[in-house]
Amino acid sequence: MKLSDFITETFTWWKGQTMGTRFHTWRYGEFVGEDEFGNRYYRTKGRKIDPTLGFERRWVIFNGYAEASAIPPGWHAWMHQRSDVPPSEETYVPREWQKPHRPNPTGTANAYHPPGSTLGFGHRPAVTGDYKAWTPE
């Protein structure tokens, strides 16, 4: 491990796992599966029920930036206790009309900018009754 990776893992949580998460996963975690984005999913070893929560603990180690919308729908259902069977243990085949999951692009270069947006490309088209700047008399 490089020094920069060590420092990043020690002091930042948004770029993947921290040292505490790495240790907790090693000590108490059981690997469940990996999604198409490289995110890795874990649960408590032996599927033990947490007495405080009343259900088993489940967590994800993101591949890169920690962004909740990067979790596909099947894994999202499993993470939020909506499904007992993780997608890695299912034989689900999506329908032909279903689009593949995309993380939310807001705040990235791939974000949608409507026509006329100051962040969009090109010029804003003129409209009827367009804005006229106020000038003092």
Relevant terms:
single chain; 137 residues; alpha+beta; 3-stranded antiparallel β-sheet; 3 helices; elongated; NADH dehydrogenase
Biggest sheet: strands side by side, in what order? 1-2-3
Indicate the overall shape: elongated
Describe the main β-sheet briefly: 3 strands, antiparallel
pLDDT below 50 for ≥5 consecutive residues: which ranges? none
How many helical stretches? Answer: 3
- Can you count the beta strands? 3
Portion of residues in helices? 10-25%
Oligomer: single chain
Spatial extent as radius of gyration? 22 Å
Mean pLDDT: 83
Structural category: alpha+beta
Rounded to the nearest angstrom, the distance between the terminal CA atoms is: 69 Å
Following the backbone from N to C, one meets helices and strands in this order, namely: HHEEEH
Relative strand content: 5-15%
Put the structure in a nutshell.
Helix content is 19%, strand content 11%. It is of the alpha+beta class. The protein has a domain at 3-89.
Description:
With 137 residues, the protein is an alpha+beta fold. It has a domain at 3-89. The chain has three helices and three strands; from the N terminus they run H-H-E-E-E-H. It has helices spanning 3-11, 19-28, 73-79; strands spanning 29-34, 40-44, 58-61. It has a three-stranded antiparallel sheet with strand order 1-2-3. A hairpin with a 5-residue loop joins strand 1 (29-34) and strand 2 (40-44). The longest helix is centred in the N-terminal third of the chain and has 10 residues, at 19-28. The radius of gyration is 22 Å and the shape is elongated. The relative contact order is 0.11. The mean pLDDT is 83. This is NADH dehydrogenase. It comes from Starkeya nomas. Residues 87-126 are annotated as: Disordered.
